[in-house]
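Q: What does the assembled structure look like for these inputs?
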Amino acid sequence: MKAAPGRVLVVGGGIFGITAALELRRRGWLVTVLDPGPIPHEGASSTDVSKVVRMDYGSDRFYHELAELALEGWDRWNHDWPVPFYHEDGFLILSPTPMAPGGYEYESFEVLRARGYAPERLDANSASGRYPEWDFTRYPDGYLNTRAGWAESGAVVERLSSLCRAAGVTFLTGSMRSLMSHGSRVSGVVTTGADRIEADRVLVAAGAWTPGLVPWLSHVLWPTAHPVLHFQPDDPDAFRGSGFPPWAADISGTGWYGFPALPDGRVKVAHHGPGARARPDDRGAVSAEHEARTRDFLRYSIPALADAPVVHRRVCMYCDSFDGDLFAAADPSREGLVVASGGSGHGFKFAPALGAIFADVLEGRDNRFAFRFAWRSLGQVATEEARFTGGLSE
Ligand SMILES: Cc1cc2nc3c(=O)[nH]c(=O)nc-3n(C[C@H](O)[C@H](O)[C@H](O)COP(=O)(O)OP(=O)(O)OC[C@H]3O[C@@H](n4cnc5c(N)ncnc54)[C@H](O)[C@@H]3O)c2cc1C
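A:
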């Protein structure tokens, strides 16, 4: 039965919460967003200088299709917004071995082609001419996907929150402590400041903080910490333009990926992996070991960066789900509660498509993507492949 609009409280002003808030407001709900703020919050995963936007998901066509829909949205936002925050610089995927069936790189390449795209296959010779900062000795194979790029994630959250304000969304500064309920029906939240906020629906989209707020999900959702480094090369221009697109090098094996130089010359290098279990408010710092490991990787991959100074270090949080799929579902035991989280290190790129998914879930409407994000528990793994490609690597 479709829910008639009423009051909805969105807990969390990251990309999950903000996209849900805007869509629900456009559907006539009275929307309040609660976040300790200011939004974009400095500790939020969405608050960053860059996130990869790609359809390259191995053989998992579900995510190819969702990312394709999101890309149409990125184009629309670039067209409609005063400043484009999505940069279609392509995505360079390098393989440590010749691409072969079953491998993330090969399967991504094949699905792109099967779906009508024309990724450019590269070998070490053809690539070294085009990408002079790279050493391809260890990357004999790979491809460039031109229908891909990166988004200025923090700026996107800021833009969307101003669109929310303009649409009449109310923003409250504060933190949820617990849910309020009448019987089995959730009726709002109590904040850490002991304020009681009533609502007809509560959507908890608090990223890595979510498992702490809905602990009955902590066996399927958990926070993990991931290090990010920004290097300052002597010649940032060498790390911009068509000669240095966003990249992933042996991403399913070693987990390295990165971005072109920012306007201030910084070059971000990140690592996708299991991360370390940590509470988001006690996430620690980037270790000297990780920095040394990164420099070792750069020495044989992007030599000019290997000894460059590190000018920024950040520990960013994933809200990992046990199967790597997002989590967007109504709580079957608590009427009026919806949980939208589980970005698992790959949720930002879907931003233009997320609001409709979350709003459909909250309103009990059919949505062709929601089945994969349904309320589930261990043993209900969607597909083993998802676990592998969704999070790119384990
Ligand atoms: C290092 C790293 C690299 C990544 N790279 C990519 C990438 O290249 N491409 C990609 O698609 N995705 C990437 N991701 C994943 C992506 O960033 C996340 O999936 C996405 O940003 C999650 O958004 P969110 O809204 O769920 O959480 P967040 O952005 O973390 O927002 C959660 C919000 O909840 C608020 N909050 C917390 N506690 C409370 C409370 N008690 N009450 C009220 N509000 C609260 C916080 O202040 C915050 O604003 C990456 C993530 C990391 C960590």
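Residues 36 and 174 are 4 Å apart (CA to CA).
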